[in-house]
Amino acid sequence: MRAFLLRRLLQNAILLLFISVIVYGILYLVPGGPFDQLNFGATSATAAAAQVKRLNELLGLDRPLYERYWNWLTKALVGDWGMSWTVAFGQPVGRLIESRLGNTLLLMGLSAVFSLAIALPIGIISAVRPYSIWDYLITAFSFFGLSMPTFWFGVMMLIIFSVVLGWLPAGGAITPGKADDIVDRIRHLIMPVVVLSLVQVAGQSRFIRSSMLEVLKQDYIRTARAKGVPWARVVLTHGLRNAILPVITLLGLEIPQLFGGAIITETIFTWPGMGRLFFEGISRNDWPVVQAITMLSAILVVGGNLLADLAYAVVDPRIRYE
Amino acid sequence: MTDPMPPAFDDDILATEEVSQARLVWRRFRRHRLGLLGITVIGVIALACMLAPWIAPYTFDKPDTSNIMGTPSASHWLGTDELGRDVLSRLLYAGRISLLVSLVATMLSIVIGVLVGSIAAYFGGALDTLLMRFTDIMLSLPSLPLLLIFSKTLRDFGPLRRALGDNTSVVIIITVLTIFGWMNVARLVYGSVLSLKAREFTEASRALGASSFRIIFTHLIPNSAAPIIVAMTLGIGSRIIAEASLSFLGLGIVPPNPSWGSMLSGVQAYMFRNPWLAFYPGLTILIVVLAINFAGDALRDALDPRLKN
Question: How many interchain CB pairs under 8 A, A with B?
Answer without folding.
Answer: 133
